[in-house]
Design a protein that fits this description.
326 residues, alpha/beta, Rossmann fold, nine-stranded mixed sheet, 11 helices
Length: 326
């Protein structure tokens, strides 16, 4: 893939105007309050596993509307002291899969929680366990246009609420040091992590990796790749709906959540990425509330840094946790 977006120097300074609804904060305050009022304590069930160096728990917690959402919670075997904790969100179409698929954070000494993404889990990996019981109006195949006619009905309202309540649930667990919780994710997971960082207080860090769900006005139509192209296909049929659709998306734009983030962030971006174009990533990173560091992969597409980026995240987070509290 040849370089197709802005030049690197332009990307690093890219701060576009982003549409933001006047009631953005009230919309999310009300949304979270309604679901928190319905929440019940998370349940943990320890499972038998061949993984002898970690303890594995099947978790169910209350998400949007009180819906039960699945997750994995994995800690070093026998851990008793409260641990710094990573909450991770998944890429588009994937489910939580099997616990042995992702062990890096737990074997590095962290408690680690992986949130299943409601309604997803049949696109790749080993499957998901969380249904999305809420209906939508007309939509194109995929998740991007489900309920897109109305912010209150939009699919990602439910997912982002799940993400914020996952942080709540994790903080209630005995093995978790609630003052040292970080969020992370790749692609869609990175976009969800940005939303969680904008909706949650007191996080120690956010680590969005080649994040999706940012700067919709540019992304939709700028790239011909899914998932953004799901919106293009929808609008090619619903020809008079573009204003309403873009208004809905403005409530879910990572660039708007970035302004509200209070935790330090380490982003990654791939400069040849045709799925999450680099300008859309920088639109969020450059608006981050307390400033963000960005790692660039100049010759990678959407795979980004993969294991190299995880190593950088681990080193960066360890340095932050070792720094004295200001």
């Amino acid at each position: 893939m040849p370089r197709f977006d802005l030049a690197p120097a332009e990307l690093r300074a890219y701060r576009p105007e982003i549409a933001e609804p006047a009631d953005f904060d009230e919309f999310w305050r009300t949304t979270l309050a309604e679901s928190r009022a319905l929440a019940t304590p998370p349940t943990l069930t320890k499972i038998d596993s061949p993984l002898t160096l970690v303890d594995v728990y099947d978790v169910k917690f209350s998400g949007f509307g009180g819906d039960r959402v699945s997750g994995w919670f994995i800690v070093p075997a026998g851990a008793t002291a409260p641990l710094p904790t990573i909450v991770e969100y998944l890429g588009y179409g994937g489910g939580r899969g099997l616990p042995h698929e992702r062990l890096g954070w737990a074997v590095a000494g962290y408690a680690w929680f992986l949130m299943d993404t409601r309604g997803q889990g049949s696109g790749w990996g080993a499957g998901g366990d969380t249904p999305d019981p809420h209906g939508t109006g007309a939509s194109s195949p995929g998740f991007m246009t489900r309920g897109i006619h109305d912010p209150a009905e939009y699919y990602y309202r439910r997912v982002f609420t799940d993400a914020a309540l996952a942080v709540d649930a994790v903080r209630s667990l005995d093995a978790v040091d609630e003052s040292r919780v970080a969020v992370t994710g790749i692609s869609q997971g990175g976009g969800i992590a940005i939303a969680a960082a904008g909706l949650s207080e007191g996080l120690v860090a956010a680590m969005p990796d080649v994040p999706f769900l940012c700067h919709f006005e540019r992304a939709v139509g700028f790239t011909d790749r899914d998932p953004y192209n799901e919106v293009v296909r929808y609008l090619s049929v619903h020809r008079d709906a573009s204003e309403r659709v873009l208004r809905t998306l403005s409530y879910f734009d990572g660039a708007n959540f970035a302004l509200r983030a209070t935790a330090p962030a380490l982003f990654s971006v791939a400069l040849l990425d045709p799925i999450c174009p680099p300008s859309t990533v920088y639109a969020a990173a450059n608006r981050w509330g307390v400033g963000a560091e960005v790692v660039e992969y100049a010759f990678n597409e959407h795979e980004g840094g993969q294991a190299v980026q995880w190593q950088r995240q681990a080193e960066w987070l360890a340095a932050r946790l070792a720094a004295p509290v200001e």
